[in-house]
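Homework help board

Subject: predicted structure for assignment chain

Our instructor gave us this sequence and asked us to write out the predicted structure in token form, then describe one feature. I got the tokens but I'm not sure how to describe them. Can anyone check?
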Amino acid sequence: MNPRSLTKAEIADAIARCSLASPHTVPLLEAAYHGVITLAGLGRDRMPPLKQMERSRLPALIVLGDDCADGTDTGPAGWAALPRLLRWARLAVVHGAGGRVQDYREAVLTCLQVRKLVLVECGTAHLWAWHQAFAQAGVPTVNLVPSDGVHPVSSSRGTVH
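My token output:
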């Protein structure tokens, strides 16, 4: 299946929806909307649109969402595209701390510097496995860990992200 690029109107609609449901993603979407970066969200069984991203000549940021509150997160072993991403990435941000707007703003700024960034959204259960996957491939890695030690938190402890 070929990836489809979103129109500006579709990105603007996503920004509006995410500003309430997941405001931490808004900086990524705004950067893509304004043509600052090329942005791709990748599913576990999908290959990244690397050629399409290269053609844009913009810095590229790929997001992997492996922080499922329903427990279906897999860590790096569950991602078909991981070998490609390990060869492609110049930096990985392993974000295991829940959605914080400032972290995503910083990811955009970092992407502008390194040009090929993978942002892994994960829970603490798989944070170090993600770190090791990138580090063993020689990809510099920034790890963001939760201040309370656990992400996502269970509904009995607080809000589920």
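Reply (TA_rk): Your tokens look well-formed. For the description, you could write something like this. The radius of gyration is 15 Å. That's the kind of observation they're looking for.
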